[in-house]
Amino acid sequence: MGKGFLMTVMLLVLMMKLSLLTIGGDPLVDYSLDGYCDCSRQARSLNGYDMSLSVDKIDFTSVNPGDFVGRSSCNTYTTALGAGQRVLSYSYYTPPVNTAGKPRERGASLARYTELLKDLLYKTKILYPDWRVRIYHNISKSDNSNRKLLC
Question: Does the global pTM surpass 0.85?
Answer without folding.
Answer: no
